[in-house]
Amino acid sequence: MASEPGSRIGVHGPRPGSARDRRGRGPRGVMSLPGPLSPQGAPVHRTPREAFDDLVAEILTRLDHHFAREPDHVEVAVEEAPMLPPGWDEPVPRSIVNPAPGGYRIVVYRLPIVGRARSAVDLEELVWTVLLTRLGEVWHHDPEDLDPRA
Fold first, then answer.
1. Which of 1, 11, 9, 141 is nearest to 66 (CA)?
2. pLDDT given at position 11
């Protein structure tokens, strides 16, 4: 059908094709294109593990000045979940502190923390709480004294 001059026939709305949200799995197709500020394009997808690791690294960066002042060396690691003995009937721990050569090692467990969070804001607050509690335990400080947000 050819459109005549002055007619109002045209295509409007989103373009059909592979970028639609099929079966509730999220949009498909290219979400960002290369540009002057990102020659390879912006990363579109991060796995939940990568997002959690980035969150922990961001929080530790904000606490970096404490690591420089404290005498005990502390290493922080992220693991998926703790290995619990058969018959464990207590709540799954969110983190543990282990002695390490020259200091301590804090292990943060991703799945128990993510499972207890109701939203992204709640997840961030929970990670802050876990890290501040464990660092306060290692350095013998009140966690509120270590919190740079206060």
1. 141
2. 43
Each domain of the chain, given as residue ranges in start order, spans 48-83+92-146
Strand-pairing partners, residue 21, are: 27
Residue keyed to tokens 């109701």: 118
Alpha-helical runs (H) found in the chain: 48-62, 64-69, 110-116, 120-139, 143-146
- Looking at the structure, give the CATH architecture of the domain made up of residues 48-83+92-146: 2-Layer Sandwich (3.30)
Q: Can you give the pLDDT at residue 71?
A: 77
Half-sphere exposure of 54 (CA within 13 A, CB side): 6
Q: What is the pLDDT of residue 13?
A: 44
pTM for the model: 0.69
